[in-house]
Amino acid sequence: MSKIKSSEAVKVVVRCRPLNRKEESNGPAGGIVQMDLRLGQVILRNPRAPASEPQKTFTFDAVYDPNSKQRDLYDESVRPLIDSVLAGFNGTIFAYGQTGTGKTYTMQGAWMDPEKRGVIPNAFDHIFTHISRSQSDKQYLVRASYLEIYREEIRDLLDPNHGSARALELRENPDTGVYVQDLTSCVCKSIKEIEEVMNVGNQARAVGATDMNEHSSRSHALFLITVECSQPGPDGRKHIRVGRLNLVDLAGSERQAKTGVQGERLKEAAKINLSLSALGNVISALADGRSSHVPYRDSKLTRLLQDSLGGNAKTVMVATLGPAPQHYEETLTTLRYANRAKNIQNQPRVNEDPKDALLREFQREIARLRAQLNHRKWRSKQKREQMDGETWEKDGDGETDGEEEDVEVEKEAEEYVKLEEQRLEREKQAIREDGSLLAGEKQRLLGEKERMMGDLRREQEATEQLTAQYKAMESKLLVGGKNIIDHTNEQQKMLEMKRHEIAEQTRKEREIQQQMLVQDEETVELRETFTSLQQEVEAKTKKLKKLYAKLQCIKAEIQDVNGEHVTSRQELEQTQNELVRELKFKYLIIENFIPPEEKNKIMNRLTFDPEEDQWKFQPLVPAESKSSQMKKRPASAVGYKRPISQYARVAIAMGAHSRYRAENIMFLELDMTPPNTSSLDHSAEAELNQSPSVDNLITKDKGVRKSRSWCQTPKSITSSSSNVSLTGCHTATAALAQ
Ligand code: ADP
Ligand code: MG
Question: In the prediction, which pLDDT does 690 show?
């Protein structure tokens, strides 16, 4: 299965967005982020520190300043990864950063503007252009899924009942790793189709959210693309390579406020933080290299990205920064986080002929349908030969090539049916005109012919259906250089190629520059030969100064990291305290208010689900008998709320018949004040004397009230009448009070 077994580090690039209008108007301070594009360095200035304090410098695989173009980032940092995915590697790109720093802009961008299209739409173009330009012996199958993780629940964004559907579960397969059970996956045949999938998911994401920004800052969105490619190998057999691409737009990395919130809100905040802090812990454990345990199982996100972090995948992390001084702390945290991620080593390898390749299944199904069609063709030909007594001039070895053969099959089938119909029609005519036959005999023969015609039509329909099925199946597979027309002309292709070359060149140049910088520092003393003592002193003083500055930097760094550590520790302790308090409170309730036998009953029903990593209740009814017991309704209850006796049914049918009146001794309908039917023009006094509402009121006052249902004998109720009864009541109360 594995072809290339080498390890490579996670690529980390940093991008800083421009100051927005509000930040610009805040003051002349300007941005706190400076970038050295040539060296791939980010220099961060602390807006509150004195000017003498050294600035913090971080080095990454590439950096993109506010003037950078979407295209540059794609060509330099993403294109090589997508190329690997097309060659059968797993690939992941994730955008990490504080809310509002440009994660979604980087991943999706503005779709309409070709200059501002982000990583995802560019990747679509890239994948389908690659397929259209590849050789025709390659077959491709492209699938897409879209999900989000919100409050530690996985939601399928392509499910039409996204809002009401239950959360999906993660499963682990020893061969293929972690996957999401029952996740919708759409086969896409063109850029347009995959864009449609993306739009459907984006809309589903927006529908559930009252405030889109708020929602997207608290949920992770994962767009998954699987590209399967089948190609004949040197052994003559078709081999399948599967590349999986995860495009991840993470939740905002800023800490969710936990101070002052309690109960459900506290748990929510804790859950939102969970995935990101788990991601941080996984990155730390991997970057450290010494920890034997990597806590992948701590959150859904880390389990899903398990392969991308320290596993079989190539990974690019885009850390996004805001340049505003007020976000200095968050920016520094992001840079530290990204800096740690650089040290993660992955072991990517080509996925060759995996067991779960859908393309293989598709190919088998297509072959099966084709065999069925061929069989039909052969049968119809046989029949035709029998009918005509002549040999069919075309050979029937069934090996003629692809589409030509399909067209031929269809034509032959149509022709055969037409001829057969004509023949039957002729025979019918002959029977009708034959004077020697008896009327009954004629009818029988005609009936027989009719039946034969019916059979013929059914057969044709079945063939048509099969052909349609076959075509639908085949159209899902993309053949290299065939299904998609590449509209770009040669000049444009050349231009593209040149651009990629330049991107590649820039990348290499930067790598060499960075290497030189490191080597310079290490070998400086080896190269130095001093002619005089004075010169030596000068050189060494310079070096001392340099090293001293570095020492100061590291000291400051240690202090910062310690500070950060203390804050996060305090926060964790606070959360722990609050959770302990809540737990104690619940224990108190259990000890004092729940009888021990009830408690034991509940305890006995609890089981630990290792898959989900949590405790679960066993169902009260055993699983196997559950369906039979719960689903069946008693025969007498069909159509009713509860079982009903034969007697009661007759009573319903009879209406208010006196014989059946005693059935329901107690009326359980809603007992309401009987409606008043007196007309509008009655004066209040007259009502006082006659109105039943008065009578009712008095009985109510006495505290004795007959349980009777006026619904049994409905009277016509109008809204005006109830108004009258109300006014009547008021007048009546007034009169009684006097
Ligand atoms: P996030 O997804 O990280 O919360 P967004 O992608 O929504 O942030 O970006 C916030 C705003 O900043 C958007 O209006 C976006 O257009 C703008 N923006 C982000 N990055 C850039 C950039 N590199 N160039 C121009 N505008 C940007
Ligand atoms: Mg966003």
Answer: 47
For residue 263, the model assigns a pLDDT of 59
Phi-psi region of 511 (alpha: psi -120 to 50; beta: other; left: phi over 0): alpha
Kindly report the protein residue whose alpha carbon is nearest to atom 18 of ligand 1.
102
How far is it, in rounded angstroms, from Cα 249 to Cα 221? 5
- Residues 513, 516: Cα–Cα separation, whole Å: 5
- Token pair for 262: 């309690």
Cβ(316)–Cβ(96) under 8 Å? no
C-alpha triplet 162, 167, 171: angle, nearest 5°: 125
Residues of 386-425 as b/e, b for ≥16 C-beta within 10 angstroms? eeeeeeeeeeeeeeeeeeebbeebeebbeebbeebeeebe
CA 360, CA 136: separation in Å to the nearest integer? 18
For the Cβ of 19 lying below 6 angstroms from any atom of ligand 1, the answer is: no
If one residue of 15, 17, 320 were mutated to test the ligand 1 pocket, choosing by the most ligand atoms within 8 A of its CB, it would be 17
Q: Where is average pLDDT lowest: 472-481, 509-518, 577-586?
A: 472-481
Phi, psi of 141 (to 5 degrees): -135, 120
Q: Is the CB of 103 under 6 A from ligand 1?
A: yes
What distance in Å separates the CA atoms of residue 65 and residue 321, rounded to the nearest whole number?
Answer: 10
* For residue 733, pLDDT beyond 50: no
Kindly tell me if the per-residue pLDDT of 274 is higher than 80. no
Distance CA 556, CA 44 (A): 13
* pLDDT tens per residue, range 615-638: 888 877 665 555 555 566 677 777
| Ion ligand 2: protein residues whose beta carbon lies under 5 Å | 103-104, 216
Cα dist. 539→184, 287, 646 in Å?
66, 36, 110
Q: Which atom of ligand 1 is nearest to the CA of 70?
A: 23
> Which of 85-99, 206-220, 290-304, 710-724 has the least mean pLDDT?
710-724
Strand partners, 244: 226
Is the confidence at residue 594, as pLDDT, over 50?
yes
CA of 384 to the centre of ligand 2 (A): 66
Global pTM value: 0.71
Confidence at 523, pLDDT banded by 50, 70, 90: low
Question: Which value, in Å, is the radius of gyration of the alpha carbons in the chain?
Answer: 39
Q: Rounded to the nearest 10 degrees, how much is the dihedral formed by the CA atoms of 93, 99, 102, 104? A: 60
Structure-token match 């690659």, residue found: 130
Q: How far is CA 114 from CA 66, 111, 200, 309, 343, in A?
A: 18, 7, 21, 32, 34
Q: Flag whether pLDDT at 568 surpasses 90.
A: no
What does the pLDDT read at residue 256?
65
Alpha-helix residue ranges (DSSP H) falling in 289-401 = 300-304, 328-341, 358-388
| Whether 346 contacts 311, CB under 8 Å | yes
